[in-house]
Amino acid sequence: MAVPVIDFSKLNGEERAKTMQQIANGCEEWGFFQLINHGISEELLERVKKVTTEFYKVEREENFKNSATVKLLNDIAEKKSSENLENVDWEDVITLLDDNEWPENTPSFRETMSEYRSELKKLAEKLTEVMDENLGLPKGYIKKALNGGEGDNAFFGTKVSHYPPCPYPELVNGLRAHTDAGGVILLFQDDKAGGLQMLKDGEWLDVQPLPNAIVINTGDQIEVLSNGRYKSCWHRVLSATEGNRRSIASFYNPPLKATISPAPQLAEKENQQVDDAYPKFVFGDYMSIYAEQKFLPKEPRFRAVKAI
């Protein structure tokens, strides 16, 4: 089995119906798919690769080599014990938000990543429209839900991660298995260095590097809004002895004050009360639970937030 690869440009041509079905299948059966010809220029993507790679080398690499994570791993390896780093990720990460301080020592970083984030946000909103249509919801329904109502209130964050070479990959994950808490996740992963895996039918599958593709996965809030038609998917990153995997994940999430619940139209189709399978909740309450339970099964999170 291979993670579906979908040509997004065909939404606008004779193969629109087929492409809509491919995206529906990606959301319903996988929770992961790769988009090619997604409308973001290769020139911009090449600049993103360049500035993020330079940023890590100039501003982060030395700090990571001297970090507590590296020291802890080396200590465990030297002891030759059966212990491993279960509660640590072999990952260097920063998060870019419009109102955060951004790196200043890498030429063109801010300009390039601002442009990239703008393009990714547009792509996320196009995808929500496709989901609306596939689910039989009014146009703009999911976007409105993820913006907490009218206006442009969605949380849009970009996580720039690097997974450096790890001398003992059997002792630590690059990133522990989890589902994503939010809405639509758009990942620009490394062209060459693999390591990202998704869980499908009880089997971990590689999300193969595909040059300049954008990997899409659906988060917990899309699962709730779709009344379980679209499932958030477990995924992880393996560490490796070679390569320095670059990963740029952008999250189109609700604001903390947004109220999230299954679309009434979808619950009615299945003769459910809206809160039978998934509760109605404030996203900030969900995030408080998620912060403590990110790497644990997701179903108890929904039950816990229902009890609030």
Description:
This protein is an alpha+beta fold and 308 residues long. The protein contains nine helices and 13 strands. The strands form three sheets. The protein has a seven-stranded mixed beta sheet with strand order 1-2-9-6-11-4-3. The protein has a four-stranded antiparallel beta sheet with strand order 5-10-7-8, with no helix packed on it. Strand 7 (196-200) and strand 8 (203-206) form a beta hairpin. Helix 2 crosses helix 4 (109-135) and helix 8 (283-293) packs across helix 9. The longest helix is centred in the middle third of the chain and has 27 residues, at 109-135. The relative contact order is 0.16. The mean pLDDT is 94.
Question: Tags for this entry?
Answer:
308 residues, alpha+beta, seven-stranded mixed sheet, four-stranded antiparallel sheet, 9 helices
Tell me the Rg in angstroms: 20 Å
Number of helices: 9
Low-confidence stretches: none
* Sheet/helix structural class: alpha+beta
Summarize the structure.
By secondary structure, this protein is an alpha+beta fold. The chain has helices at 16-30, 42-65, 68-79, 109-135, 141-146, 220-225, 264-269, 283-293, 299-306, and strands at residues 5-7, 32-36, 92-96, 155-163, 175-178, 184-189, 196-200, 203-206, 214-218, 235-237, 245-253, 259-260, 281-282.
